Request: fold
Amino acid sequence: MKHVTQIRQSVAISVVLIALLFILPLAVIVPFRSELFSGESPVDETEQAPFASGDLDAQTVLKVLDGDTVVEMDMGEYLVGVVRAEMPASFEEEALKAQAVAARTYTSYKILTGGNHGDTADICTDSTCCQAWIAEDRARSNWGEDADAFEQKIEAAVYETDGQTILYGGVPILAVFHSSSAGQTRQAGTVWLNDLPYLQPVTSPEDGAQIPNYYSRVSFTADAFREKVLAAHPEADLSGEMSGWLTNAVTDASGSVETVDVGGVTMKGSTLRGILGLRSACFDWEVQDGELVFFVTGFGHGVGMSQYGADQMARDGADYQEILTHYYTGVTVEPYRLTRTGS
Ligand SMILES: [Zn+2]
Reply:
């Protein structure tokens, strides 16, 4: 009896094993059947493999404030969203890599120096506060039919620069960047309060003819100009002839205004740029038909890496390390392991 039972058990086990041989492959294939047999490429982005960060980027987990919500993601996932938002995805691969490294460095600098959000978050997605960031689905709808290619380029730029960080004296720098300069970048102290040794003026090779709105023109009526300036500087005297309102401009070699007297008040060109909403502080002006007309070159504060300049350098054969060491003076670009103090 005992022997028969053993045989029955063996037969039962064999039947189960043989059945599994047929069922298991089906269980693996069925979920992907539509992809394998439909003959169409999948359009739903959820079928796309999610981005996986490199080893160093995966080790840094960030709290990212997006609107009212704090989302946790690792450095690589975060950087892909920053590069999507901060640089045109049509740019050269080496320019996108330079952008990824600059954004990683800027983020590390913010974390090491305390950042803008205390214990709530490491960084936010508001470009006027920290750095712009957009999710994949929103980027894809902006990109349209180029979405797959653009997303792949950006993910590669982040993955292939895993952990690479711009260092000065072994420490991540304040890696600021701007859209386009007027042929030369600007010294930090002429734009903001303080100079930094690695934010010095350097030549920048962008070709204005290829850049949308590189040259812009803005005009103000007397009332409009007065209203804007007096809101910021009520002490300015804008009573006389319009042609005498702006005097004593000091410009750098590229024509960016370092300081200018506005109604007798000396201010930085970058300050007047902010008051008037000009695209950059590289501007000239004249009175035309009773209006004050500004002629502006480039876009952004002009400090650190120029994005269009980086793209031009890449077209001319530079790699991302050459681009970064050109725009940031005296730095090295190296893998860096971010360690938080006090945690
Ligand atoms: Zn912020």
The mean pLDDT is 90.
